[in-house]
Amino acid sequence: MGKRSGSKRKDKNKVILPPLLPPDVDDDDVHISDEDLDFYGGKKNFAARFHQFDQKVIDRYVGRTAGDEAEVERLYEEREKRKASRRPQEEDGDLEVDPVDALPVKTLQGELVYNRAKKARHEENTGSLKSKAQENGADAKQGIKKDELKGKSKSKKGDDKVKNTQSQIEAPKGKLHSDVLEEVKEELSAEELFEKKKAQLAELGMAMLEDPEANIRSLNDMLSISNDKDQKVVKLGLMSLLAVFKDIIPSYRIRQLTEKELAVEVSKEVKKTRYYEYTLIRCYKAYLQKLISLEKQSHFYPVAVRCMCALLDTAPHFNFRESLLASVVKNLNSSDDVVRKMCCETIRSIFINEGKHRGEATIEAVRLIADHVKLNDCQLHPDSIEVFLSLRFDEDIREDETEEQKMKPKKNKRWQNQESPKQLPVSDKKKTRQELISKAREEVDADLRAVSFTLGPKERKSIQRETLSALFETYFRILKHTMSISNSRSKANIVSPGASHPLLAPCLEGLGKFSHLIDLDFMGELIACLKKLSGYSDRQDEIPHDNTLSVSERMQCCIVAFKVWRSNLEALNVDLQDFFVQLYNLILEYRPDRDRGEVLADALKTLLWEGKQQDMLRAAAFIKRLATFALSFGSAEAIAALVTLKHLLQKNSKCRNMLENDSGGGSLSCLVAKYNPEAKDPYLSGALASVLWELSLLEKHYDISVSSMASNILSMASLNPTQNPVSILNVNPLEAYRDLSIERELSKPPSKALSLNIKKKRRGKEFVALSPDMLQKADCSVDKDELEEKLQSHFAVLRGISENERLRAELNHTLSSINMYKEYKKQKKKNLKLKIVKKKLARV
């Protein structure tokens, strides 16, 4: 560099090469945006600066290499030779990486620079990598030599390098093309594919929602995506199609066109609509077939059932409703709780929202459930029958039949011989006109019925009658099946309560709800069947063999019998004394951990609370039995029994003599035989000779509501027979039971339950009795100090738990009192405002 800058004369004579120019770019590749054109078009001052440049000065600077073109080419070749001579020296220290393995970096001058690795790092690699590196190095040297021979200009040099790398890649391309594609497919992660298909489904779904008629073919693409092997993609495709179908399904049922309709020429709009409906029905059918097939697979079972339930709930009026109903009704007996609840909610919504399907889906669902019960021999989950409780019937279903029978002409011989009154002759023109008008009205009415979902009164009543007949057919089949099982087991002396008739409890509950709609022809048989199922026997000394039903189910039989009797009181003449006897005996068989207390409270409400004034002997027997029962069980059952006991004492004033604390019984004890608590008939118990000493113990009950109710009942002894004490609870036994059970659950302190594994371990332990010799050999010495410390810590924890429970109870009591005080304040403010308003109005 020093020699070159030695003298100014040499520098002047030296030919200076122009700066390296950028690579050539075709005019087609140059893109000028509209924003740039608008910018320079609006601001011409910026573009004017380019015209101020002196073209001559620029040419002089570029042409200052004053010399022949041969001299320029000679200098350019010398410079390229110097660069080529430097490369081998650099490659001795470093090895160039194959361009296939590492991407090059392009500099500002347009040169491609490859990553290089040192020899030391290269020698540490495996033998396979060494051979590959040597082949790549040899190929790279051959490429460099070719570049030295062919490199005449800088642009040619860059092109030769690119061609060289391409030749290195294209050589094994034919052999490795398939392998490379497989490797690339494997390297693509499942998440990327899932996101890609997810975006594709989103685009297709949005297009369908924006314009369904124009993009109806997108349904085929979505169906093809839902046939993917990936389970996530299939589930996403099913849910996407569900959202689309819920939005685009029309509010009418698409019918198949007849041959005459297809032969008629129609407009383009009608053709477009027909094509849209045809494609929609075809894709909807394929989608339902896909759901039904996937329902059999455990991975897609919940998703498929959810889609079918959503479609049936959204569009119960649309095509292929029968297949959807069949699959949903079949899953009412599913072992999966989530799926079963989902199907039950769907069937309930169909029963409640009959305006969507004009009641046709309701009768179809009831018939399918009836057939399902028949095929499975009444061995189904109770939820499959419990959905019938959501059915709604008009009160005047049977009024139309009676009116039709009244309107029918009576056959009487006196009227048969008489001639009908002569009518005036009508002209033919008037006849034809009237006939045309009547036909036109009938056609209009038929079209309106087809379009609208509202039914006429006659059609609605006919559908409800068919539904009611299918409903009672199912209920009577369950009762008949239970009777047959109970008879067979009673003969074989087999006792297994509640195991072979899971549908009896919801069946009895449904009979109680729809008892006012039962036909009078079946009343006698139904009462006899219920009496037998309740376990009643005519002989009091005989022990009944029929113990296959639980206590709750037998109580439900008594409840249903009374509801049927009360709903048809005028037409039914049945003695229900046997059901009182059975309830009297079932109260002693009740167990709170096994039976349902709500059913017991309902039985007390139906048989004793809602009835008329009871017989004195029977009322006294139930009063004594309920007092004993309240002393034996929990607070919720006790409050229900005490509410019923108080009601019976108020209705039967002579039974208040049982409240007297005489040692030999009440004042009526001399008139009645001795009290027999083991008697099965309440008339033979002699309860009037007893005293309600249980109430004095119930006054000290831990529950405030029970103790206050017991003291309130005891205060009735000092009152006149016509007087009643101040009422504490103005509720029936069922409401009292529910209120107290809810309060008891809310007042429970939160406790951490043991895990299932610990419980299983504890149950699995077996205790082995040790012999005295083994006990003597064993070392049973215990340190007293350690034992005292452990016992102290244990009892300290117990005291802390009891104190915590006491504080929580006080906190709940304080919060309730605060809420009551707030309500009192609000009510007081309202009363003050009302008084002020009244005063203002009075002044006005």
From TrEMBL:
GO CC annotations, alphabetized: nucleolus
Domain CCAAT-binding factor per the UniProt entry, residue ranges: 555-710
InterPro entries (alphabetical): ARM-type_fold, CCAAT-binding_factor, Noc3_N, Nucleolar_cplx-assoc_3
UniProt entry keywords in alphabetical sequence: Coiled coil, Nucleus
Extent of Basic and acidic residues compositional bias: 72-81, 142-163
Region (Disordered): 1-28, 69-176, 400-432
GO biological process: DNA replication initiation
Boundaries of every Nucleolar complex-associated protein 3 N-terminal domain copy: 196-287
Gene Ontology terms for molecular function: chromatin binding
Keyword Coiled coil: yes
A Pfam family it matches: CBF
Bias (Basic residues) ranges: 1-12
Tree of life domain: Eukaryota
Family as reported in the entry's similarity comment: Belongs to the CBF/MAK21 family.
Name of the protein described by the UniProt record: Nucleolar complex protein 3 homolog
